[in-house]
Write a structure and sequence with these properties.
single chain, 8 helices, binds fructose -6-phosphate
């Protein structure tokens, strides 16, 4: 696990954007795993800017989103289809047929989830998975207690996650109880995991994920088992870590052969 702490979310998002851009330049046909929510918004904005100003080309990229709410239409303002269109897909050139997001309206959830897993395998697996972290430690919508080897399936959101996400639901609509999410086993097969966490509301989940025991009670802690997991944190999200000075020293003093951003 590589822990990188930057003073602000904007600076951490810059590093994340450089990493994603480097991945695409090195492998134009990269398969990206994508997250929604507040955390990656700046990253998507920076990538869109790199596309327009620096010619970053997404035309051979394939994408798989982590999750979608069950029972809401892709055109619903709070759906993750809509979020991705508005924040990213409408601003870059990933071909529509290479974009994958779970279908929250599917009539056959198990078959749809199995097909989603198959599509990831058919694409050659995920090269780089962008992740946010729930304030309860969830990854994707794998809530505390999720099986550490789970695959794409339906999950029930915790009350805490539903209340965290109320801000995206206006007009009196309730946050759905269920989502379709990639599993922890699915996420762990990604070649690189890039987790972003910003703000003091994430500090406990970050500390438990990085310095606590690996446990299904904190799904983020499973990244301790990932061979290439990078965490990009702002100072607030990192505020409850105990080895901060060490992480900062390591990052500032990386030998040239180890620098990958
Ligand atoms: C979203 C997802 C979630 C979020 C997490 C953090 O696709 O899978 O795990 O990354 O809930 O959400 P924000 O970024 O809104 O704090």
């Amino acid at each position: 696990m590589e822990v990188i702490i930057l003073p602000t979310a904007a600076e951490a998002s810059e590093i994340a954007a450089r990493l994603v851009a480097r991945q695409i330049r090195e492998k134009p046909a990269s398969v990206l795993g994508l997250a929604t929510g507040g955390t990656p918004c700046k990253l998507y904005e920076l990538l869109a800017r790199m596309h327009h100003s620096n010619g970053l080309d997404f035309s051979r990229v394939t994408s798989f989103n982590l999750d979608e709410y069950v029972g809401i239409d892709p055109t619903h303002p709070a759906s993750y289809h809509r979020f991705m269109d508005e924040n990213f897909f409408s601003k870059v050139n990933i071909p529509r047929e290479k974009i994958h997001i779970p279908d929250g309206l599917t009539k056959d959830v198990p078959a749809h989830c199995a097909a989603y897993e198959q599509a990831i395998r058919d694409a050659g697996g995920i090269d780089l998975q962008i992740l946010g972290l729930g304030s309860d430690g969830h990854l994707g919508f794998n809530e505390p207690g999720s099986s550490l080897v789970s695959r794409t399936r339906i999950k029930t959101l915790t009350a805490r996650t539903r209340s965290d996400n109320e801000r995206f639901f206006t007009g009196g609509m309730e946050v759905p109880h269920h989502t379709i999410t990639m599993g922890l086993g699915t996420i762990m097969e990604s070649r690189i995991c890039l987790l972003l966490a910003f703000g003091e509301g994430k500090a406990r989940a970050v500390a438990a994920s990085v310095e606590g025991p690996v446990t299904a009670s904190v799904p983020g802690s499973l990244l301790q088992f990932h061979p290439r997991a990078k965490l990009l944190l702002d100072a607030e999200a990192a505020s409850l870590l105990t080895r901060t000075e060490y992480y900062q020293w390591v990052y500032k003093n990386k030998p040239a052969w180890q620098i990958d951003l």
